[in-house]
Amino acid sequence: MLSGRLGLERARIPHADRQGLIWLDRGRLEVEDGCLRFVTAGGGTLEAGDYQIPHQAISIVLLGPGSSVTHDALRLLARHGCALAAIGEGAVRFYTAPPLLPDASALARAQVTRWADPKQRMEVARAMYAMRFGEIVRTRDIAVLRGQEGARIKRAYVAAAERHGIDWRGRRYDREDPEGGDLANQAINHAGSAMTAAACVAVAATGAIPQLGFVHEDSGQSFCLDIADLYRHDVLLDIAFGAVKETRGRGAAPIERLVRKRAALLFRQREVIPGMIERIKALILPGAETTDAGPPPAATRRLGADPGAAGAR
Fold first, then answer.
1. Which residue has the higher pLDDT, 178 or 157?
2. Start-end of CATH 3.100.10.20 domains in the chain
3. Up-side HSE of residue 214: CA atoms within 13 Å toward CB?
4. 185 by DSSP, 3-state: which?
5. Is 154 in contact with 171 (CB distance < 8 Å)?
6. CB count in 10 Å sphere of residue 268
């Protein structure tokens, strides 16, 4: 093996010392002279250019529409423990990601411990409820907690509809025909898919185990659904009802397209994914140092906002 080939002689930087996420779209991710680079003609969130990517110093690359990646780039990312996720525009879809392979297992082990102990599992579920609604519930019964959650969500639907001036006739969802509901219900379905994708990004970035949920149980993405639900009563409904309101000025624009665009915008404005990362750590390792649990939430940034910081050339 050639010395310096793909930077294989370099030691990994701990994830806690890395700078979080980088978003790329409409370009080619490749390797040149042992360096990871992204070449784009523009047309997306990045201006046209040839960007050098500091792969040793980030935890996950989010690769958006119109992009391709070479085999050498995948090998380089894998060697340095940097994950690559294929996402939709603005992370409103999460398609695939190789394992993050964090350099420590503290968060995953803590998640398993808290999930396997019924008492601790209920404590995490109650903490999720408190995060969502600012209220600590006394119940120790998960069925009662779910019932209280359902009642609060119904009130949140009504309040959000009034806030956006939407005629709300109640939640209607048919798994066999998700497009069969009225426009508001369709928008909620699409916003839910976008929020789940964002949660998948956060779960992958922290190295948490997606199958081990504390409120959700059956899905292979149970923990992702738990984290997505932390934003259901506010951000998700603002996305959905805001998109419905927007249709009034855009005629027959497809509701799914409007939901995706609005979701991408609000995810950035409200720093949803960094917030999810922070909440995952708070739930799984409450009050503990999380130096090995993944990227720091405040470090999330989009390449192009400060090209010099990301090695643009």
1. 157
2. 5-102+298-310
3. 29
4. helix
5. yes
6. 16
pTM of the predicted protein model: 0.76
Question: How far is Cα of residue 150 from the mean position of the Cα atoms in its chain?
Answer: 23
The pLDDT mean for the chain works out to 83
> Is the domain defined by 5-102+298-310 classed in CATH 3.60.21.10?
no
Tokens 């980030």 map to which residue? Answer: 58
Q: What is the DSSP string of 195-256?
A: HHHHHHHHHHHHT--TT--SS--SSTTHHHHHHHHTTIIIIIHHHHHHHHHHHHHHTT--HH
What span, in angstroms and rounded, lies between the C-alpha atoms of 280 and 274? Answer: 10
Helix, strand, coil shares, percent, the chain, to 5: 50, 10, 40
Indicate where the chain has its CATH 1.20.120.920 domain(s): 106-293
27's tokens:
């370009």
Residues ≥6 apart with Cβ < 8 Å to 277: 202, 205, 206, 294, 295, 296, 297, 300
The single-letter code of the amino acid at 230 is: L
Q: How many CB atoms lie within 10 A of CB 19?
A: 18
Instruction: Report DSSP state, residue 57.
Output: G
Residue 290 or residue 213, greater confidence? 213
Are 137 and 121 in contact, with CB atoms under 8 Å apart?
Answer: no
Taking only the tens place, the pLDDT of each residue in 232-263 is 989 999 999 999 998 876 665 689 999 999 99
Say if CB 182 and CB 168 are below 8 A apart. Answer: no
Q: What angle do CA 205, 122, 114 make, to 5 degrees?
A: 50
- Pairwise CA distance, residues 181 & 95, whole Å: 26
Q: Is 208 exposed, middle or buried (0-12, 13-18, 19+ CB in 10 A)?
A: buried
CATH code for 106-293? 1.20.120.920
Label residue 94 by pLDDT band (50, 70, 90).
Answer: confident
